[in-house]
Automatic annotation (TrEMBL):
Gene from which the chain derives: Trabd2a
Similarity comment text for this entry: Belongs to the TIKI family.
Species this chain originates from: Columbina picui (Picui ground-dove)
Positions of transmembrane segments: none
Signal sequence, renumbered to the chain: none
PANTHER family, A to Z: METALLOPROTEASE TIKI, METALLOPROTEASE TIKI1
Record's keyword terms, sorted: Cell membrane, Glycoprotein, Hydrolase, Membrane, Metal-binding, Metalloprotease, Protease, Signal, Transmembrane, Transmembrane helix, Wnt signaling pathway
Protein name: Metalloprotease TIKI
Subcellular compartments: Cell membrane; Membrane
Protein origin, superkingdom: Eukaryota
Species classification: Eukaryota, Metazoa, Chordata, Craniata, Vertebrata
Role description: Metalloprotease that acts as a negative regulator of the Wnt signaling pathway by mediating the cleavage of the N-terminal residues of a subset of Wnt proteins. Following cleavage, Wnt proteins become oxidized and form large disulfide-bond oligomers, leading to their inactivation.
GO annotation (BP), single: proteolysis
Cellular-component GO terms for this entry: plasma membrane
Cofactor: Mn(2+); Co(2+)
Length: 189
């Protein structure tokens, strides 16, 4: 029952009301049917929407990409133990080989190709910091690949906000997310 669902929606009672909604980074199609009507209604009625990061802003995407890179002149091969680097390279070769069989007919119908998708996810991997490579490898699974092309809930809501001409903003800056991850030492990663 919709009325009995836990919604991850908090209301700040003021005039007009403000809302705080907790999202997760999964394809919106996996969770949309389970988001209660009160959360959807609060989103529809809101005029201003703030997200963790503004994933519709080209600067945000560019800054996220840049923050993942090792310092100029360094490559992953320089910072990873030789055996781990070799195993990583072999695994990425395996993923690249398997990706065509992991993709759905719907993805192909939308013009997504395995080589393009692999490069979009793993392109320039040899220049990335180990923590970002770890996160990248964790997302290179058959289940994750099959969901590519469908926006995660945060991005879907941001796109909807733009489409509905809502004012949008971000709570955090890229650097506030990037620097803590880049500050992890190798043993922590």
């Amino acid at each position: 029952q919709q009325s009995e669902m836990n919604s991850f929606l908090w209301t700040i009672k003021r005039d007009p009301p403000s809302y705080f909604f907790g999202t997760i980074h999964v394809p919106y199609t996996h969770v949309w049917d389970f988001i209660p009507d009160n959360s959807k209604k609060a989103f529809q009625q809101s005029h201003i929407v703030y997200f963790e990061l503004d994933l519709t802003d080209p600067y945000t995407i560019s800054a996220l990409t840049s923050c993942q890179l090792l310092p100029h002149g360094q490559n992953l091969q320089d910072v990873l133990p030789r055996d781990i680097y070799r195993r990583l390279k072999q695994h990425l070769e395996y993923v690249k080989l398997m990706m065509p069989s992991w993709m759905t007919p719907d993805q192909r119908g939308k013009g997504l190709y395995a080589d393009y998708l692999f490069n979009a996810i793993a392109g320039n991997w040899e220049r990335k910091r180990p923590v970002w490579v770890m996160l990248m490898v964790n997302s290179l699974t058959e289940v994750d690949i099959k969901s590519r092309g469908t926006p995660v809930l945060d991005l879907y809501l941001a796109q909807e906000a733009k489409r509905l001409s809502k004012q949008t903003g971000a709570v955090e800056k890229v650097e506030e997310q990037c620097h803590p991850l880049n500050g992890l030492n190798f043993s922590q990663v």
